[in-house]
Amino acid sequence: MLAVKSMDVRDNFKSLCDKVYNGETLIISRPKNENVVMLSEFEYNEMMKAKRNADYLAMLDQSMSEAEEGGLQMNTD
């Protein structure tokens, strides 16, 4: 993980992009602690996939809890 000042990003953008693309995570420090993180599109997509999976598993856990508590409704169409 790298940490740089925002001014350094401007001066070394291509080099830092190359490092991020190759797996490095970059923290860009800004005034008033308004920092940002730069990561590759691949890493971002993996994080979003993990979040969607976690959300789905949480929904399944909730459904299972409701079913165990008798919250099932049967449709008899």
Cα gyration radius (Å): 21 Å
**Could you state the order of secondary-structure elements as H and E?**
EHHEEH
Order of adjacent strands in the largest pleated sheet: 1-2-3
- The helix/strand class is alpha+beta
Poorly predicted parts: none
Q: Please tell me what the overall shape is.
A: elongated
Major beta-sheet overview: 3 strands, mixed
**Residue share in helix:** 55-70%
Q: Between the first and last Cα atoms, what is the distance in angstroms?
A: 58 Å
Strand composition percent: 5-15%
Describe this structure in words.
It contains 3 helices and 3 strands; from the N terminus they run E-H-H-E-E-H. It has helices at about 5-10, 15-20, 40-70, and strands spanning about 1-5, 25-30, 35-40. Strands 1-2-3 form a 3-stranded mixed sheet. It starts with a strand and ends in a 9-residue tail after the last helix. The model has no long low-confidence stretch (mean pLDDT about 90).
Give a quick summary of the entry:
By secondary structure, the protein is an alpha+beta fold. The chain has three helices and three strands.
Write the layout of secondary structure elements.
Elements: E1 2-5, H1 6-11, H2 13-21, E2 26-29, E3 36-38, H3 41-68
List keywords for this structure.
77 residues, alpha+beta, three-stranded mixed beta sheet, 14% strand, elongated
